[in-house]
Amino acid sequence: MNYRMNLNSKRGWIELITGCMFAGKTEEFIKRLNRYKHAQQNVLVFKPLIDTRYSKENVFSHSGMRIESVTVKDSEEIYKIFKEQNAKQKIDIIGIDEVQFLDANVVDIISKIADEGVIAIVNGLDKDFKNNPFKNVDRLLIEAEYVDKLSAICHSCGGNASRTQRIIDGNPAKANEPIIVISANEKYEARCRHCYIKPE
Ligand SMILES: [Zn+2]
User: Fold this and answer.
1) CATH number for 89
2) CA-to-CA dists, residue 122 to 38, 76, 166, angstroms
3) For a FRET experiment, which of 18, 20, 164, 179 has its CA 20 to 30 Å from that of 197?
4) Is residue 73 part of a domain?
5) How many CB atoms lie within 10 A of CB 69?
């Protein structure tokens, strides 16, 4: 990315990593944060309480990469912990995983932290299974200085996928299903524009 070469850049901005499921977003997120960690930067990573599938103290990618994280229930807790930790030792970088699962105030909190000279690296799905914009990511697409929208491979045709299809018992989920469900009897597939079936 060219911005890293601009020596006039003041520190403090937002980087958004987004796209559909199976696009490698979490790998990119962890990789970026670990690069800073290896360079002795003080990195603080948050993830929402809802996502405890793998671990409470780590963010894991499907491929097994991991980074230590703090589980939070809302954006207020993020700011509180950031302030506490920042007072002890200046925080250089914050990471926020699964930002679409946090309350809507998180975008203002992230912006405020970036204003204070911190690089905020944020990961989140751009669209839900109905292909509607996911909250927080919709605003962060506008607010972030740098956006990387990653694509997956369509599970049906092998083309470039930009959408997430929720499958229940082998069929696309209906439109009246809840947006956020984390359970074992359903699965997700990445789909391209042509293979994606709009839930009815
Ligand atoms: Zn396809």
Assistant:
1) 3.40.50.300
2) 19, 16, 24
3) 18
4) yes
5) 22
- Are residues 118 and 94 in contact, defined by beta-carbon separation less than 8 angstroms? yes
Model confidence at 52: pLDDT above 60: no
- From the CA of 52, how far away is ligand 1's center (Å)? 30
162 CA to middle of ligand 1, Å? 10
Give distance in angstroms: CA of 131 to centre of ligand 1: 15
Which residue is it, tokens 């992230």?
A: 110
- Annotated catalytic residues are 98
The model's pLDDT over 146-198, given as tens digits with 9 standing for 90+, comes to 999 999 999 999 999 999 999 988 888 888 887 776 666 678 999 999 999 99
For residue 63, give its domain range: 10-151
- Report the SS3 class of residue 170: coil
153 Cα–ligand 1 center, Å: 8
124-154: per-residue pLDDT in tens?
A: 999 999 999 999 999 999 999 999 999 999 9
